[in-house]
Write a structure and sequence with these properties.
Length: 747
């Protein structure tokens, strides 16, 4: 079985295509303008181009160093489908014996007219959303390797021996071996996390059982178990003593294991250790010198050392070299996927030959690290003086009672209705933005188009009978990028797209220097919206933690320091919104839970700086200003204390897809402020009926006192179309009114 492991590899590559080809094809298939066969062809072309590209960059064609990690939507969904774990409500779409039709595959991912999709979650501290398989008594497991096998064969026909990448242990190995796969990569990120439902010890036990079993198979490819996102800790002994051939360690987030006992030492000594020293999560050029040292220190454990990225590269864009509009000196500091493959290639040469063989490349990388410190804008005195002068009182809002009284004149009804901020981003809006950036539309014409849209959205909300209105965020391409474009210290890429789920992509900005706000950002839009209505309009800002989470952030100072700089910029913005007559300001922190460290030992420190940054941003607001926040997840548990600590007056949270599971946690925590658990799952094109929303509100009211309850969708509406949005909001308002009548009548 022991085929040599390649000296250098990556754990995965961006799947969307350099120009988002896959996203566009998948969406065309959904809208009916592309046939299934055409979609399959586009996907095959993209896979072929990726293999050729990776070979050009230095990975081997026939040594299993090129991963096959393609997915039409999500790798966890693929793993579920490959073992036959299809929810019964979709079973009728599956053809017995045959491949799962693409229509059925996408229905499980996105829902159909009748049926809700799988839940979605961010299991690790990244912005990638995984689908959550449903496994219960009705699940009948059945190995279905056909698609995987065809992809191994497709690559073989082009002369490639690829390494299929699968999530978790499966029974598909024999078929993959027969198709010619020499190595298989099993991704087991769960083994590094301490924040999942199963304990690290339970997960380690499961790994021991699974890999002893899989290792014993005789007809199988050699097995690489990859453990991205942190160090293996409890699971390392289980993997070390299992009969597998290689382990990939994340040596960016995790450490080189030390202090091991004899059986673990022995177990590791006959395995390939793949050192993930090139950061798969961030975009900075690597300090190759220190990366090479970490690889060398693996030699204490085994003679067989290889190099890889710390995670799949799906978290970074395709190529930095394509960026032509970055501030001077910055592009030389960046490494996107392709540049990282190159870094892997250099280190692999060092591992295979010697340090001397790559001495020149190491020296160039070291010079680059030094040059970054000297870039103008990386350290700005005025910004540093302001953060150094912060006092305890800068983080504290007036007492709750004073705020409640001062906000009474907002005159909100019980169970107030609102939305999370964005309204659908129509093709017209996107076109206007594209024309502005091509210079085909003047700033003034663009502003006019946005104002018209705001007026439309305000009228629509009044017609629908919502209580707290929003301006709809038409001017924002993206809730983080928009602020990045208006703050100093950020750079925005032209083509730096990254998949967040399915066909959705984001273009994270790069936070590279000290942050400050040269001028007000949102004030004119909010004030204009407020001038059109007597109802309160919520000002809408993105919070400091989320701005960090969804950007690529400098790694030369602590995240807490960077967060405080961003918080001060937002604090100034809130003061300007107040001065312009805005009474409610929402500071979105959808990523607060996402950034929660996977290791318990790292969590208290994180919660401290993240909560502090939010408080620093909002504590300058007077008692009359109602501060809202919005959180985009339903696993409330681990951060519930922190959410109280934010001290917002109202918190909206995702809850519809998990059918209000979250309200029990909220009630149990004694949370005493306004709370809006979402009643409309905006990740799916489905329209919730009035009865369905009433049902959710009843569930919420069983746990939460009516005076605390707000009614809102799960999240912003920007990804939805207008027809379904209007219908859904109409149903929500009707359900809220019915519940309100019952509450005020005391039943
Ligand atoms: N205000 C943002 C919007 O509605 C919030 C989005 C989010 O939480 N991801 O789009
Ligand atoms: Zn949200």
């Amino acid at each position: 079985m022991t085929t040599d492991f390649p000296a250098g590899t990556i754990l995965g590559y961006p799947r969307i295509g350099p120009r988002r080809e896959l996203k566009k094809a998948v969406e065309a298939f959904w809208s009916g303008t592309l046939s299934g066969a055409e979609l399959e062809q586009t996907a095959a072309d993209l896979r072929r181009a990726t293999r050729e590209r990776l070979a050009d960059l230095g990975l081997g064609r026939d040594d299993s160093s090129i991963p096959d990690d393609f997915s039409y939507y999500d790798q966890v969904l693929d793993a579920a489908v490959a073992v036959g774990a299809i929810p019964t409500r979709f079973a009728d779409l599956a053809e017995p014996g045959g491949d799962l039709p693409l229509e059925a595959y996408f229905a499980i991912a996105r829902g159909s007219v009748e049926d809700a999709p799988l839940e979605m979650t961010k299991w690790f501290d990244s912005n990638y959303h995984y689908l959550v398989p449903e496994i219960d008594e009705a699940t009948s497991f059945r190995a279905d390797a056909a698609r995987l096998v065809r992809r191994v064969q497709e690559a073989a026909a082009d002369g490639f021996t690829v390494r299929p990448v699968l999530v978790g242990p499966v029974t598909l190995l024999a078929e993959l071996r027969a198709a010619g796969a020499e190595w298989v990569q099993l991704d087991e990120p769960a083994l590094v996390s301490e924040t999942l439902e199963a304990t690290p010890e339970e997960l380690a036990d499961a790994a021991r059982t699974a890999y002893v079993e899989l290792g014993r198979l005789t007809e199988r490819p050699a097995i690489l178990v990859a453990a991205p996102y942190g160090s293996l800790d409890a699971a390392l002994p289980a993997l070390a003593t299992a009969p597998i051939e290689a382990i990939a360690l994340d040596l960016v987030r995790g450490r080189v294991p030390g202090g091991l006992d004899a059986p673990v030492q022995r177990g590791l000594a006959d395995k390939v250790l793949v050192g993930g020293v090139i950061d798969g999560r961030n975009v900075w050029r690597a300090d190759l010198e220190s990366a090479f040292e970490r690889l060398e220190s693996l030699r204490r454990l085994t003679r067989m050392v290889a190099v890889a990225t710390s995670t799949s590269l799906l978290h970074v864009p395709h190529r930095a070299a394509d960026e032509t509009h970055l501030p001077a000196g910055l592009v030389e500091q960046l490494a996107f996927a392709d540049e990282k493959v190159k870094e892997v290639e250099v280190l692999a040469r060092g591992v295979r030959v010697s340090r001397e063989a790559i001495a020149a490349e190491l020296a160039v990388a070291t010079d680059a690290v030094l040059a970054r410190r000297r870039l103008p804008g990386v350290r700005v005195d005025a910004v540093r003086e302001r953060t150094a002068a912060l006092r305890e009182a800068d983080f504290v809002r007036p007492p709750t009672a004073e705020r409640e009284e001062a906000q009474e004149d907002l005159a909100l009804p019980p169970l107030p209705t609102t939305t999370i901020g964005s309204f659908p981003q129509t093709a017209d809006l996107r076109r206007a933005r594209a024309r502005l950036s091509r210079g085909e539309l003047t700033e003034a014409d663009y502003d006019q188009a946005m104002r018209e849209e705001i007026a439309r959205v305000i009228r629509l909300q009044e017609e629908l009978g919502l209580d707290v209105l929003v301006h709809g965020e038409p001017e924002r391409n993206d809730m983080v990028q928009y602020f990045a474009e208006h703050l100093d210290g950020f750079a925005v890429t032209q083509g730096g797209w990254v998949q967040s789920y399915g066909s959705r992509c984001t273009r994270p900005s790069i936070l590279w220097g000290d942050v400050s706000r040269p001028a007000p950002i949102t004030v004119d839009w909010a004030a204009y919206a407020q001038s059109l209505t007597a109802k309160p309009v919520k000002g809408m800002l993105t919070g400091p933690v989320t701005i960090l989470a969804w950007s690529f952030v400098r790694d030369d100072q602590s995240l807490g320091e960077t967060a405080d700089q961003v918080a001060l910029a937002l604090r100034d913005e809130i003061a300007d919104l107040e001065a312009a007559g805005i009474r409610i300001v929402q500071v979105d922190e959808p990523a607060l839970r996402e950034l929660l460290p996977l290791k318990r030992r790292d969590q208290p420190g994180y919660l401290e700086w993240s909560v502090d940054a939010f408080r620093l941003a909002t504590a300058g607001a007077g008692p009359r200003t109602q501060i809202h926040t919005h959180l985009c997840y339903s696993e409330f548990g681990a951060v519930i204390g922190a959410i109280g600590g934010l001290d917002a007056d109202v918190t909206s949270i995702e809850a519809a897809r998990s059918r209000m599971e979250v309200v029990a946690d909220i009630a149990a925590s004694g949370f005493a402020r306004g709370i809006g658990p979402g009643v409309y799952d905006i990740h799916s094109p489905r329209v919730p009926s009035v009865e369905e929303v009433e049902g959710l509100l009843d569930t919420a009211l069983a746990a939460i006192p009516p005076r605390q309850l707000w009614v809102n969708p799960d999240c912003g509406l920007k990804t939805r179309g207008y027809p379904e949005t209007i219908e859904s909001l109409r149903n929500i308002v009707a359900a809220a009114h019915a519940a309100r009548d019952r509450v005020t009548a005391g039943v």
